[in-house]
Amino acid sequence: MDNGSRLYLATAAFLAAHFISSTPLRGVLVKAIGEKTYAGLYSLLAFATLGWMIWAYNRAPLEPLWVGLRWLPAVAMPFTFVLLACGLLARNPTSLGAARLLKNPEPARGIIRVTRHPVMWALILWSLAHMLARGERMATVFFGGFLALAALGALLMDRRKANTLGDDWKRFAAVTSYLPFGAIAQGRNRFDAREIGWRNPAIGLALYALVFWFHPMLFGIRAY
Questions:
Q1: Domain limits of the chain?
Q2: Which of 9, 22, 38, 119 could join 87 via S-S bond, C-beta 3.0 to 4.6 A?
Q3: Cα–Cα distance between 134 and 116 in angstroms, integer?
Q4: Comparing C-alpha atoms, which of 110, 119, 122 is closest to residue 191?
């Protein structure tokens, strides 16, 4: 098997490992081995397939498809890191184990008014910007895998929570959106910069600056 084929296989395994949690198989496994054991094995499988994917990508042949948009990450990545920091550091009812937040009188605040999936959208922007900037086949497979994981994963997460959380989720979904600014544009919510504050965006921009500076040392290529 050549290195290009290994990347296709590794990416398929990576996606399959993550999408298990959105299928009936998850319930069967949890019932059989318990929630904690399932979570541990799931994490191990996710990291193992990610490592395999990175290993295969680093050895895959370079096959240019188009002239890469090298400027695109310069535009997208600051927003990516702001979304990532705001999503990770804010209280989000869609986070693991945070469903109790849906019972708050106003469950969608801060960055959640913009999108209920800020971390997933950070991953979407990152993967799409890098895929278009690289402009070659194996980068399309590699970064496209992350794009599919984030875009489809968020939709599957919404479906699973709608099926399990009942009226609490319906109330939350009514004032939030999958697409950024969707609920705001439809008049179902409003943008409130004061709730987002300055700390989390500042942390995101600081992380962006660090990654920009150390990009050549971490990934062997200058950022832009």
A1: 1-61, 65-219
A2: 119
A3: 29
A4: 110
The tokens 């945070």 sit on which residue?
Answer: 98
Residue 136's DSSP bridge partners are: 64
The candidate with the shortest Cα–Cα distance to 176, out of 113, 105, 111, is 113
Please check the confidence at residue 219 and state whether its pLDDT lies above 80.
no
Amino acid at 91: R
Q: At CA 156, angle to CA 150 and CA 159, rounded to 5?
A: 145
Half-sphere exposure of 169 (CA within 13 A, CB side): 14
State the average pLDDT over residues 177-187. 95
What does the alpha-carbon distance between residue 59 and residue 77 come to, in Å, rounded to a whole number? 25
Phi, psi of 139 (to 5 degrees): -65, -35
